[in-house]
């Protein structure tokens, strides 16, 4: 094998390993993006749970006041908080699904479970 052939083969190997490193960098960035979106979704779901619990607590207070003949408390703030939290969860779910869809389209081999 000539010196030129050896250099050509080394260049091919080098290019292949560079492509592989770049692919792994892309996959790593994709995984980090998915992790951020999953964490955002989890936070939004926690906020929804907290808002729903606050609304339920106010509803219980209203029942107690109603039974004792006192005026009821306004639930509009708690109701609005629940609505905002639900909207936030929906937005995060869309982001997660879109990111997963793009990841599966670009790297389908990573999503094959055996």
Automatic annotation (TrEMBL):
Disordered as annotated region, ranges: 1-21
Record carries keyword Coiled coil: yes
Keywords: Coiled coil
Coiled-coil parts of chain: 31-102
Biased composition (Basic and acidic residues): 1-13
Official protein name in the record: Uncharacterized protein
The species this protein was found in: bacterium (Candidatus Gribaldobacteria) CG_4_10_14_0_2_um_filter_36_18
